[in-house]
Amino acid sequence: MNFAFSCLRALFPSASPSALSVASAFCATYTTKKNTATTGFPTRATSACGINTSLYSSACSCKPTYSSTLTTTTATPTPTCAPTPSNNIVKNGGFECGLASWTAIDTYNNKHYVRGPGDNSANAYEFNQVGDTRLYEPGYVYVGASLTQNLTVTVGKDYVLKFRIYFDKCTIYEGFVGVQLNDGDDEGRTVDSCDNWSAYEHQFGDFTIPFTASRNPENLRFEFIIGEPDAVVKLDNIVVVPA
């Protein structure tokens, strides 16, 4: 067995930055003079080097060269996604946990993202129309992109749906977002790009829909019926609370 090599590997393990730091500090003083002491060795190395001073001297003289700066990668903390307000039955209504609990479906020439800026928050759900929509094409059956979530409710109980929505422009072709609860059986409405545009131009606007739950789970659906190429629509802060 090559005891010198085994001692070197034990003293300078590549997988342990803390052990490297201890070994480097030890060698910095150990090799400045002839050493005969049989104590004070790094604990990690004693199984391979024992108390043999020549092995330590050899290992220190052959030590690898490391950058003086160690790079540490810290995992990004996972957002808690606690409901806001606390009685909100929509999960991840602010999209701070990406698309968790939501189902997003794209159709013709559109894409979706979860990114900022949101409505005074880090994230929002963003619909992008990236080309011709075919919405007004004769004979073409248009199917809008959608965002859905099933909600746990009490049948017969009254609730209020609140959400914030952003349109990048108000034109006759921009279109609207349809909102349905249980396929419209409980309630539904459309939010046009020009609805209250004077107040909501280039910012998120407030919308509210009261409804009575007819079945559990309650399906909440947003459908994007957009006719303007390059349109951008955002949703954020979706809340359903008891009335």
Nutshell version of this structure?
The chain is α+β, with helices and mostly antiparallel strands.
Walk me through what this model shows.
With 243 residues, the chain is an alpha+beta fold. It is built from 5 helices and 10 strands, in the order ααααβββββββαβββ. The strands form 2 sheets. It has a 5-stranded antiparallel sheet, with no helix packed on it. A 5-stranded antiparallel sheet has the order 2-3-10-5-8, with no helix packed on it. A hairpin with an 8-residue loop joins β2 and β3. α1 packs across α4 and α2 packs across α4. The longest helix has 14 residues. It is elongated. About 4% of the residues have low confidence.
Average pLDDT number: 83
Strand count, sense and closure of the main sheet? 5 strands, antiparallel
Structural class, by secondary structure, is alpha+beta
Percent strand: 25-35%
Shape: elongated
Would you identify the regions where 5 or more consecutive residues have pLDDT less than 50?
66-75
- What is the alpha-carbon Rg in Å? 31 Å
Question: Which range best describes the helical content: under 10%, 10-25%, 25-40%, 40-55%, 55-70% or over 70%?
Answer: 10-25%
Strand order of the largest sheet: 1-4-9-6-7
Number of strands: 10
* Tally of DSSP helical segments: 5
Spatial gap, N to C terminus: 78 Å
Helix and strand element order: HHHHEEEEEEEHEEE
